[in-house]
Amino acid sequence: MRRRLRLVWLAVLALSVSFVPVPAQAAVHNPVIFVHGWAGGGWNWAVMKSDFQKDGWPADRLFAWDYRSTQSNVTTAKELASFVEQVRRQTGAEKVDIVTHSMGGLSSRWYLKFLGGTAFVDHWVSIGGPNHGTNASYLCDLLIVSCGEMNYNSSFLKQLNNGGETPGPVNYGTFWSWCDEIINPDESVKLDGAVNAQVGCIGHLSLLISGSVSRQVRDFVR
């Protein structure tokens, strides 16, 4: 009898152990590369990077990339391609997400469309990007090549937007404001084939520190 009770006890113990809940694995986020706009820098992203970290993205998967914004966006796109590869090697990730502000959207789109970037990017975001040009570019287009590329009818934008604005399997999202004083017309940000979100009345630089915009961006790339 004692032996039988012992066997029953062992069976119950084994059964209870087998049903111990296993903690859920934390979601593994893609590395995020933040690309600033004209005359900006990696410091532009301090607030949004902090928001991402508080929402579960590890600090070592968030990269605020710097580049020389006066050079051609074509040159910047080539440099971005190299940086994406560096991030993929460093993190072991198959793909990255790219979040851009203003002119940063143009070089990253060139990378996606002409340099094979669609194979390595999961989500792409344009916050206040001059995707179809802006009249602000005419203030500096004679002296600075990247400004000229933001002219409404520049050969750069014609080539970039011709034959499909959102190529490949990438998830494209744009966020635009009807109070953006730099991007004119405001709807220049929107792209065919993208999720285009109007975020309300927020200034061009304030888009970078808006809690609402940050939350929408995180929800999009999550």
Give the strand tally.
Answer: 6
Order of SSEs, N→C? HEHEHEHEHHEEH
Shape, per Cα inertia axes:
globular
| Share of residues in strands | 5-15%
Mean pLDDT: 91
Please describe what this structure looks like.
- This protein has seven helices and six strands, in the order αβαβαβαβααββα.
- The chain is an alpha/beta fold and 222 residues long.
- Helix 4 links the parallel strand 3 and strand 4.
- The chain is globular and about 45 Å long.
Describe the structure in brief.
With 222 residues, this protein is an alpha/beta fold.
Secondary-structure map with pairings?
Elements: H1 2-18, E1 32-35, H2 46-54, E2 62-65, H3 73-91, E3 96-101, H4 104-114, E4 121-127, H5 145-148, H6 155-161, E5 171-176, E6 195-198, H7 211-221
Parallel strand pairs: 1-2, 1-3, 3-4, 4-5, 5-6
Helix pairs in contact: 3-4
